[in-house]
Amino acid sequence: MSEVTLNNAELRTGETPSRAALLRRMRTSDALFHGLTRAAAIAVLLLLSGVIASLVIGSAPAFRAFGFSFFTTESWNPVTEKFGALAPIYGTLVTSFIAMAIAVPIGLMIAFFLTELCPGWLRRPIGIAIELLAGIPSIIYGIWGLFVFAPFLQRYVQPFLIDAFGNIPVLSTVFEGPPYGIGMLTAGLILAIMVLPFITSISRDVFDAVPPVLKEAAYGVGCTTWEVFRNIILPYTRVGVIGGFMLGLGRALGETMAVTFVIGNAHKISASILAPGTTISASIANEFTEAVGDIYTSSLIALGLILFLITFVVLAAARYMLMRLQRRIG
Amino acid sequence: MPEAANNALYAGRRRRNVIAKGLALAATALGLGWLVLILGVLLYEGLGGLSLSVFTEMTPPPGAAGGLLNAIVGSLILTGLAVLIGTPIGVLAGTYLAEYGRHDKLSSVVRFINDVLLSAPSIVIGLFVYEVMVAPMGHFSGWAGAVALAVIVIPVVVRTTEDMLTLVPDTLREAAASIGLPRAHMIIRIAYRAAQAGIVTGILLAVARISGETAPLLFTALNNQFWSTNMNAPMPSLPVVIFQFALSPYEEWQSLAWTGALLITVTVLALSIIARSLTSTRKSS
Hints:
The complex is a heterodimer of chains A (330) and B (285).
Chain A: H1 2-13, H2 16-66, H3 69-72, E1 76-77, E2 82-83, H4 86-117, H5 120-135, H6 138-165, H7 169-174, H8 184-208, H9 212-220, H10 225-254, H11 257-262, H12 280-287, H13 294-329
Antiparallel strand pairs in A: 1-2
Helix pairs in contact in A: 2-13, 4-8, 4-10, 4-12, 5-8, 6-8, 8-10, 9-10, 10-13, 12-13
Chain B: H1 3-49, H2 52-56, H3 69-100, H4 105-118, H5 122-137, H6 142-167, H7 170-178, H8 183-211, H9 215-218, H10 238-246, H11 251-284
């Protein structure tokens, strides 16, 4: 403000030229600032183009060498320089699927609790606690998963799973093998804990946006709390809830450190989810600095490009759905 | 409908309701249980290794005692530089979206792109910076690490700046315009001041986010066993040291990893609580 008052004094005492100069100065600084902000906005645009361009250029040698077979080959052999992305892609999808299968119902139920059942004074603290869970860096989940969760699974849960499903045809292959502790199931469970807060907070936000009149009408005709949730709230917010799932899925797909600790980094596809595997991000994190040779590096960058494209599609779909819900609620 | 069937129906509905409520309660307990469990283990393991030497000694060679001083300093430098690089770009871009181009085509594209960047896997950002900085320069460097973190800061700051500026009432802008204040001056002197707390919150959240980031540093700043403030050389950082030490077979290293993990978590939680209280006082006032 001080400059303005100063300028005003100038205006009062000064002659016309200084006023014109002042106006000119203001106009240039105005245009300059406008240009600056515009440049920054365009820089954001260039940033993403840069990410995509660098990944495409970096992965070109790998795609030239392997062609489409890069997507269909399981082998990953640095010695013979034969690389295929099938195992990491498979691992990424399986771990994310496990994570979503667990986190979605639990997240929805927590959001149900927070919006419909929870007493008012408890709602904020619980909501904050769940959001703190989202703020914990992924490396913490990783170290916790490696030292605490994996040994626990190895000792208690996995032997039980192997015994329980040992005689059932399909499930015996899914839960087969020695309990390593680390492996795809462990990674999936850690991911579930990580995406849970995302799903919960988005679901809670969209549930809160349901017009109270709708709920009151349902209660008025004698619906139970569960029936209101099941038949009014869920259908009304379906698009938004699915958008929330997709955001969580996007995070699960791209998550690196937590998975790297507990996945076991084995480039092979096993039917058993107890077996070690690998994901796209874990392969990159584990091998990139040690990758020797252009084709090896390029194959890892190609993995990065695939990961980026998958998450891009999932996230774009999520945004689109959340936008649609927003438009409807207005 | 006969009385009995009616009663059975009612009982069934009530049973389902009770079961659902019980499940919801159980799910919430489970969610909170994880938080308590993780923080509990972290406190137990981390406090055990916490001592003054953690802050005064360098990271040790395998099998020896030591501290995390170089990693802590490295993290501070990298985070600080990333914020210095990322914040101006983020704030300016956010300003464009909220003030100049609220409805133009460029803004809607940038807004979408920013959302994509916001949730892009951080390891991909690391690959990007490796390709544009590490590979051409021929070596890993602190600069590359700082830039990688800055790329993560930018979208967070853009988003919060835009949101906070949009909340500033238009009457303020009109009042400024009516006394002949040019737009740039109006934004800097009035809109920024009104949105101050919110913008600072955004920056704090960005710091919280990058102070635990590991993946983008793995192949940009790499790591360094020794004290280094040379930005052109590989630079140690807390998350990367934790990663390396936790996966090692040495007990001293593992214990330091836990201590480092505790330090990071405390920092991140403190930052997000401060950020939260900043916005909540703003709302109530």
